Amino acid sequence: MQHRIAVLGAGFAGAWAAGFLARHLRPEDVDITVVNAEPDFVERLRLHQVAAGQRLRYRGLAEMFAGTGVHLRVDRVAAVDADRRRVTLDDGGELAYDTLLYALGSTAADHGVPGVREHAHHVAARPAALRLRARLDDLGPGGTVLVVGGNLTAIEAATEIAESHPRLRVAIATAGELGGWFAEKPRRHLLRAFERLGIAIHEHTEIAEVTADGAVAADGRALAADATVWAAGFAVHPIAAASGLDVTDTGRILVDRQMRSVSHPGVYAAGDSVFTIAENGKPLPMSCASAGFTAMQATAAIVGDLTGCDVGRTALAYYGNHMSLGRKDAIFQPVDRRGEATSWSIRGRTAAFLKETVLRTAVFGMGHPTFGMPSRRRALTAEPAARREAAVA
Q1: Which residues contact 367 (CB under 8 A, 6 or more apart)?
Q2: How confident is the model over 311-354, as pLDDT tens digits?
Q3: Torsion angle, CA of 331/334/339/343, rounded to 10 degrees?
Q4: Domain spans of the chain, in order of start
Q5: SS3 (DSSP) at 215
Q6: For residue range 14-30, what is the model confidence (pLDDT) as tens digits?
Q7: Which of 67, 72, 222, 296 makes an SS bond possible with 314, Cβ 3.0 to 4.6 Å?
Q8: What does the longest C-alpha to C-alpha distance in the chain come to?
Q9: Which fold has domain 3-105+237-320+359-392?
């Protein structure tokens, strides 16, 4: 009987992990099923470009996994029962598993601010980005856009929209200092880019409410906007917290160093849904880079636990912040071992080219899961479940 592996989510973490498992485990030993809400692989890191009106190439997951032995189930995950090892889907069906890789990622966090869900747009999912694109296209010359947030997503969304829609007036509101985590030179570069693009900056402006015609700051100021874009952080889906898995108070799954659930043998996690400590002693942030490192560690653990091989150790590091400022400008700000900005950085067209190269390389790996397929894949041990339980204990 084949060992059933379920992979929930086919973003950067889930899609890569499914391909890796298919390359390294014998197909006669395992049945790998990927569950994803959309039929395409979505480059979440480019959704601000989608919202700004740019056309991107989408890769069908069925085509990506063709010839790998990976089965695709296009559906939304409704619930996970970690005790029964069952996944409930929106269509009412169930998926039983022996090993689960949870990689459902995250969505926009509203932080309980009134009006966000009713009136704000976001770029944390493709349907939301497409709705924002339609709204921006409907605005006439002089239309106003307010981006709320001071993180990388907010900055990328504001600059992309301003560059792609020069007829619109764009502003950004952040609770702190815009780019305050950067060293001096990259922060100056950031502010010059905002000036060049004509983006108004509202620093130290906490938003207390979003309305149909803008937002209200905590100090009572009204910020008028025809479209409000909420980019004030991310939150994980509540599915993990309701599944019986041990999670943090924010719903992120608690794992050991190998990305195994600390409470349920046979469950592994990768991507934004994981809470783990980086090499610098701080929690690994939600990011594409973190998704890659945690997926590499989780799949190494799955292969090792199922086949009896040694589990390799993937470095859980965070090297820095890399964000675009439109299509021809960007900043790469490295961080040191303490997670603090270093004195050097890469800026301008060079940083933009570097980011584009990294993204294209990552997507190539997603789109070619059979690339580098080994001629000999590993066989499962006679009792993989017993090995997993012993490893967690």
Answers
A1: 41, 59, 64
A2: 988 888 888 889 999 999 999 999 887 778 898 999 999 999 99
A3: -100
A4: 3-105+237-320+359-392, 116-230
A5: strand
A6: 999 999 999 999 999 99
A7: 296
A8: 68
A9: FAD/NAD(P)-binding domain (3.50.50)
